[in-house]
Design goal:
Helix content: 10-25%
Strand order of the largest sheet: 2-3-4-5-6-7-8-9
Distance between the termini: 55 Å
Strand content: 35-45%
Largest sheet: 8 strands, antiparallel, barrel
Number of helices: 3
């Protein structure tokens, strides 16, 4: 048991130092988007808010999804770094079980790691998407969440509705940070 406590404490310190969201307990199983249609989901999405992560350090974040094959969507994530350079990563999202098409697993070409959960909790395909992912690490869990929009802005009403969904799932939306999508600042992403 002592070894597990040392490992858990070490993991907690590492993740806390990198601003990752780590909590005690197992991952919740929130309901996902009913009748999810990946064909309607493809296209460009702007990141509006996210739970802090160690792997996203920039602003102006976008995710572009493209159809690859049945149950598989191509992923291109981009962000603008402080030095003005654009960071991008390519991957794919696969439906884990055909009976739950809104539960995808994402993997990236340049990152040798197991696929991570990408669950679409809510999307109307035209204005918003709420994505949640959670991985269990013994007595802890690491949570990820993104609020995405087809435009660089989102109404407060929609944002509040998505925060309510997160709250109902046991995720604290107050831990989310806004993403700068200012047109002038993000101009290099559109060149």
């Amino acid at each position: 048991m002592k070894a597990m406590q040392v490992i858990s404490l070490t993991l907690l310190c590492v993740v806390a130092a990198s601003a990752q969201i780590l909590k005690f307990g197992k991952c919740p199983k929130p309901p996902v988007q009913a009748n999810f249609d990946s064909n309607r989901y493809v296209g460009k999405w702007y990141e509006i808010m996210k739970l802090p992560t160690q792997f996203q350090k920039g602003e102006c974040g976008t995710a572009t999804y493209s159809p690859k094959s049945p149950g598989v969507v191509g992923v291109l994530n981009r962000e603008l770094l402080d030095d003005g350079s654009i960071n991008s990563i390519v991957g794919q999202a696969k439906v884990k079980h055909p009976s739950e098409p809104a539960k995808l697993e994402v993997s990236f070409t340049d990152i040798p790691s197991p696929p991570g959960p990408y669950w679409v909790l809510s999307s109307d395909y035209e204005t918003h998407s709420l994505v949640y992912g959670c991985t269990d690490f013994g007595i802890f869990r690491m949570e990820l969440a993104w609020i995405l929009s087809r435009e660089p802005t989102m109404s407060q009403e929609t944002l509040q509705r998505l925060h309510n969904i997160l709250s109902a799932a046991g995720v604290n939306p107050e831990k989310m940070v806004p993403t700068n999508q200012d047109e002038t600042y993000c101009a290099p992403m559109n060149e």
